[in-house]
């Protein structure tokens, strides 16, 4: 069996096992008792109203200039603890305010010694309009500096009603089966990626410079894939801050997620290099390498903390790689056509 056929079968096998294992193997199990009590506090102004029931609470507001909220402070939780907050939520005729956060929201807010940490992931659900009952869940890791946690449901300068039932908060931990499956799956994808590019990386027919470029493109793609969600966001925010302080005109030109630009450029470079190194190979094989690497890096994110695979991201990667392949093929065709014929 040829190497190309082995790569195809491995890709199909890994895709199937990754999706199946992630669907059927539970990631978390409860690791503590319920942290919420019936002792809720609330803040209302004017005609706003908060009604407590045996199963939850309802918020009403007809004033778009005030915040109607109900909250509960949680006793000190050990840093590093993973918390699961879940609730059944329904809203009716919610009209949003001017700001993006002026909606019907349920959130978990961490605070350190100095301030509330709005930069951390906080929102379970944010709704406008009318939505029937649906269960929402959010998973949060308590940061090292966190000293207090507050669970909040609010109509933040928005009108309408918000109903919350069966709200629960408890600590969780990863199941052993999930941890083992994650390690095996990520290792398997790593071996597959090396198999895709390794045959060209260790081929002495290609120059050291070309192989070095291939390594750079490969490392760039893998690094962008394996960054945990918080790390990825922090790096992206720091880069944006640097750009914003350098130039206001540059600030206005950054319209897209920097991580997506990174991946597009990385796959563009990969497409250029692979196409240049495989000029004697069928075009279908070159495209397979780009597509399988793009799909594989997205699927691997199922097992990376804080990351979510997106079909749109796969297409961004694929388009970058295809453009690189097209550019090399155009150059190759023109180069050959410019040669004198005898």
Automatic annotation (TrEMBL):
**Which residue spans traverse the membrane?**
184-202, 209-227, 261-279, 286-304, 310-333
Keywords assigned by UniProt, alphabetized = Membrane, Transmembrane, Transmembrane helix
Q: Which residues form the VanZ-like domain?
A: 212-331
Give the Gene3D superfamilies listed for this entry. Galactose-binding domain-like
Q: Name one Pfam family in it.
A: VanZ
Show the NCBIfam families listed in the entry.
vanZ_1
**Protein name as annotated:** VanZ like protein
Whose protein is this, by species? Nitrosomonas ureae
